Amino acid sequence: MIFQTLDDKTECVGIYTDNKLIFDADKFPENLSSTWKYSPYLRNMDIEYISLYLEGGTLEDNIPEFLKDDWSDVAKNIQAFKRSLSLARVDTNENCFFDLVPQRFLIEFCEVKNRICEHILKTKPKPKRYGFYRGVAMMLEDLSHRKVNLDMRAVSSYKSVKKLANIANTIIESEKYVKYNQFGTKTGRLTTKKGSFPILTMSKSMRTAVKPTNDYFLELDFNGAEVRTLLGLLGKEQPTGDVHNFHIDEIFSNINDRSAAKVAFFAWLYGSRTAVVKEDVQKLEKFYEKDSLLEKHWIGNTVTTPFGKQINDTSRHHALNYLVQSTAAELTLKQALKLDYLLRTRGHGSQIAFLIHDAVVIDMKNEDEHLIKSLLALMASTNFGQFEVNLSKGKTLGSMEQVTIG
Question: Which domain holds residue 245?
Answer without folding.
Answer: 240-288
